[in-house]
Amino acid sequence: MNRLQCVMLDLDGTIYLGNRLFPYTADFLARLTRLGIGCLFLTNNSSRSTDAYLEKLARMGIQTDASHILISSHAAANYLNAHFPEKRVFLLGTDSMRREMESRGIRLCEDDPEVLLAGFDTDLNYDRLTKFANFVADGLPYIATHPDRVCPAEHGFLPDLGSIMELIFACCGRRPDVVCGKPEEQILIAAEQRTGFSREHLLMVGDRLTTDIAIGQWGVKTCLVLSGEARKEDIPGAPIAPTYVFPTLYELGLAIEKARKNE
Ligand SMILES: [Mg+2]
Questions:
Q1: 0.85 exceeded by pTM
Q2: Which end of the chain is less crowded, N or C, counting CB atoms within 10 A of the terminal residue's CB?
């Protein structure tokens, strides 16, 4: 941990559960600040805007700014700007995501797209889904923000983008050409660009083995916290093993501080 410069933190299940901040989160963040270690809040949920996350964190007493929020939609915008500059993009996504993309210079269009982008559209409309699926069947480049099949919710779960992608696969026989969020590399590249640190100096912390921890495949260290989805007994079946496992952020904070003192 002695090369650690910045901690990337998943949100739900890691720093809070639903609308309840974990009791140790504020102390963990203060400890990082004291040790001169940065933090980046990193989420796959592309249905919400940067401002929505800032408001949610502020309601829980965490004051931060837009530079510390990285959403899979941001990684998708970077990818589109790098690989499909100036191209017309058809978006399956919320109004919030629409604004995030437009503010990053993405040209959105309705009728004659050159590229398709799927986000987590919690206002999913059957006509737009039909339009999107037909563009996919036409063979246009097809990008998705993230692969999660379910999103945790207060009562049960929400069918997430990964499930919508399976629906599109069922009718078109295609899955996305590129997925940008965790566990894929685009969001790690976006995090490197945002923080200015290369991946050896970053640590991804989260509660989901298939996304937060599987991003370890790209050479970044990972820490599983057992405060959310994954149980200890799930670890042997994980696609990629976590570098570290702690019950919560509290124990991770202690370990980081100890490692710093021993340097
Ligand atoms: Mg989580």
A1: yes
A2: C
